[in-house]
Amino acid sequence: MPSPLFSETPIWKKLAQQAQRFSLPKMHLKHLLRQERRLETFSLNGAGLFYDFSRQRIDGEALGHLIELAEARDLRAQFRAMMAGEKVNVTEGRAALHTACRSFSDAPVRADGKDVMPAIRDVREKIRAFAEKIRGGAITGSTGKPFRHIVVVGIGGSYLGAQFISEALCAFADRKLALHYLANVDIHNFGHVASRIDPETTLWVMISKSYTTAETLANTKQAYAFMEEKGLDPSKHVVTVTSEGSPGDDPSNPVIDAFHMFNFIGGRYSVTSAVGGVPLSLYLGYERFEELLRGAEEMDQHALTAPPEKNLPLMAALISVWNNNFLGYEAHAIIPYAEPLCKLAPHVQQLYMESCGKSVTKDGRPLDGKQTGVIIFGEPGTNAQHSFFQLAHQGRPFPIDFIGVIRPQYEQYRSESKGVTNHQELWANFLSQPMALAIGKDDENPAKVFSGNRPSSTILLEDLSPRNVGRLLAFYEHRTVFEAFIWDINPFDQFGVELGKVMASDIRSEMVAKNGDEKHSFQGMDKINEFYLEALFSGEKWQVMREG
Ligand SMILES: O=P(O)(O)OC[C@H]1O[C@](O)(CO)[C@@H](O)[C@@H]1O
Hints:
The protein is α/β, with parallel strands linked by helices and 548 residues long. It has 20 helices and 15 strands.
């Protein structure tokens, strides 16, 4: 029996009624914030994170109904099924076992009846040994020099997670190693990287689960041509991370080493597999990668075992659904007041928008667009304050996650300006922004009125250690899947990326024909694309446009 559509459940109706109360002036956040014990009532501690939702447009009654929602949709049972290896990715007939990647327990985890843990432990061990050899100089490039540059080639889930973590933890990185990312097929990305590396001391890490992704294959070819042009032997400069049996898992194409990821791990959930493990262990050392895994494991266990009213990612999912489906916000910003988390928002953007950007339930029943994910974006504070916060304060409202860190990674720099350290200045803003958004301000001049009543949550970490970053990573992963479980959508497939790829393939065929025969005509294509292809190949139409 499929579960009823969320919008047809009694709890949906109750929540919709609750939401109406929040349009009353007395429910403005400036009043709600005066409630006694507001912070204590609407905040949680768990797995090393503090999650404060006291500045959300919520009260005890609405919260009670949200907890009821968690029970009505059986969220923890769905999460348990995911962690136990059931085929929760129903449209692709697969398990979603990213949590197994960071399990250090002796308990088996079965997918298709087979314990996946031995293979996962083997990969971890292989990563540890490999990273030690590269970092210690036991494996060198083809001219015998130790590696000093790592170029990670991959896109989407085979890139964004590693980039988020490597930025977050770069204070711990080996100073002798520079890390570069080559994701975009745009030749500017390659040119930029090529101009910053020393080819002889460069290790290329090719990451692709499928090894069919056009951008990654094009960049891999470019890298091979570059190495050969420099007289280097690619087999001594390349390592691959891919699925067993993929086109890249090819023994006839020798590489220094090959690491497997598994089909039960989705790209955007793969940073704790070899996808993140190889580049992060090279850059930070395996021990730090393992600390990250242990932090993620703590959050996994918390999400699995804590009851809904104490469960951080589950509560964050409930709040997000409340904001989206019942209060009508269509976007959500992630604003870390911590520069090392500068790539958190792009990572969560893919994680969440690829997972929750769906239009049907997991068994194919149509949903209206308002019943699935919102638009995620973000930038670190205080930079965000000087770019788009004008709109956040006086334009269209959107909920925000403010993320703060008590102790910075660089505690040694303590000079003061206006009587405070840089970190204290950062905190003054980190504290003022959610308050200003919530409370607002009246003014005789309408242009200076702040309507307030703009919701936000605050997430606090003690520091940016690998363990805490792992906890944060898993918090957002679980928040994402809990939301999907509420809507009954599949957060593990991504058919929405296919149509554009197919169309690109048709256009590519036209380009191939033109490259082979300059007389090839684009006539017969749709008129708009004909125009652009003419512009690309001849420049004439562009000329016409400029003259016109
Ligand atoms: O690891 P691959 O197979 O190269 O895929 C890269 C990315 O492309 C996507 O399929 C979407 O375009 C992502 O889901 C995936 O992470």
